[in-house]
Prior knowledge:
This protein is α+β, with helices and mostly antiparallel strands. Helices cover 26% and strands 30% of the residues.
Amino acid sequence: RDRRSHYFAGRTAAWMLAQAAGLSQSVHTDTLGAPYLESVNGRQPITITHSGAWAMAAMAGNHVFGMDYEVGLPGRAHLRRRVCGDGEIASHDLRDPETETRAYALGCIWTMKEALFKAYGVGLVAELKDVEVGPVAPDGTVCVRALQPLHPTIPHPLPRGLYCAVRPFEGHPLAVVGCAPGHSA
């Protein structure tokens, strides 16, 4: 699938979300590129992800929330040096040769980092290596920390109330990051 069809599918998912929530069915983007819907109460931030045959959109009111989904990571182990720091490569056992387990672990790290940036309404504004993703617990939760300030809209250090989790969805990693109001700074 090409990028245009993924973009269109993501916007369609957002439109369907807007319709279900009774909001303006126009998807807008702010100056940082973060998508939102318009309501009588103002902007309603949304998060959109698309990969493979899937496109998803979600919103969480005034909560910090982001998600990312990634299909097709097998065969892309060469990206691990761009996405992961040395500590992550060691702790997640991402050495060669690539295996299905290692490809999934790379996907968990990648999607978690992208979900974090989406949660704060920014794109890839920092090096992915500047975020460290710990091992995935049996319940899917993950400890994530910023190794240095990432962007003015992302608190440093990351808030203690930040919920980070990644679970398989149709065999591929789906990551979510969220924080209730009052716990996001």
